C-alpha cells in the first residue's frame, strides 16, 4: 500500500511539472509546436517516468496484475514476472492450460 501511495504522490508531482510546461500563464493549453526543445525533452522525461511508475506499481505485489485487487493474498508468477491474486492465478491457469495436457506453461 505504501508503494501505491508513493506512486500517487510521485505522479502528482510529475503531473504538476508537466502542467507547468503544457499550460501558459493564462492557464491555457499551449500548442505543442510552441514548446522549446528543452521543454519537449522535459515533457518526454516526465511522461516516461510516469509510465515507469505505473508499470512498477502494476507489477508489484501491491496489486494483482489482472484484477488490480490490492487486498488479496498474492502469488508471484516468474514467467509473467508479476504478482497475481490466488483467484486470478487459478483462473489464468485454467485459461492458458494446454487442452491436451491440462498444464499451463505461463501459469505453472
Ligand atoms: Zn486478481
Describe the protein.
The chain has 108 residues and is mostly helical. It folds into two domains: 57 residues; 46 residues, no CATH class. The chain is 50% helix and 7% strand. It has three helices and two strands. It has a two-stranded antiparallel sheet. Helix 1 packs antiparallel against helix 2. The two termini are 27 Å apart. Bound molecules: zinc ion (ZN). The site of zinc ion (ZN) has 8 residues, from strand 2 and helix 3. The site of zinc ion has 8 residues, from strand 2 and helix 3.
Structure summarized in a few sentences:
With 108 residues, the chain is mainly alpha-helical. It has two domains: 2-58; 63-108, no CATH class.
Key words describing this protein structure:
108 residues; mainly alpha; 2 domains; two-stranded antiparallel ribbon; elongated; binds zinc ion
How are the SSEs placed, and which strands pair?
Layout (H helix, E strand, L loop, with lengths): L1 H21 L14 H22 L15 E4 L4 E4 H11 L12
Antiparallel strand pairs: 1-2
Helix pairs in contact: 1-2
The protein binds zinc ion.
Helix content: 40-55%
Distinct bound molecules: zinc ion
* Sheet with most strands: 2 strands, antiparallel
Task: Give the termini distance in whole angstroms.
Answer: 27 Å
Low-confidence spans: pLDDT under 50, at least 5 residues? Answer: none
- Taking all residues together, what is the mean pLDDT? 87
Oligomer class:
single chain
Number of helices: 3
Characterize the overall form. Answer: elongated
Count the domains: 2
Alpha-carbon Rg, integer: 20 Å
Amino acid at each position: 500500500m505504501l508503494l501505491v501511495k508513493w506512486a500517487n504522490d510521485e505522479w502528482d508531482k510529475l503531473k504538476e511539472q508537466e502542467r507547468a510546461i503544457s499550460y501558459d500563464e493564462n492557464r491555457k493549453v499551449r500548442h505543442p509546436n510552441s514548446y522549446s526543445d528543452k521543454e519537449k525533452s522535459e515533457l518526454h522525461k516526465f511522461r516516461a517516468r510516469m509510465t515507469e511508475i505505473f508499470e512498477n506499481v502494476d507489477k508489484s505485489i501491491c496489486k494483482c496484475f489482472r484484477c488490480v485487487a490490492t487486498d488479496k493474498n498474492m502469488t508471484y508468477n516468474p514467467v509473467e514476472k508479476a504478482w497475481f491474486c490466488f483467484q486470478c492465478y487459478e483462473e489464468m491457469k485454467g485459461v492458458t492450460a494446454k487442452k491436451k495436457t491440462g498444464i499451463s506453461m505461463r501459469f505453472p
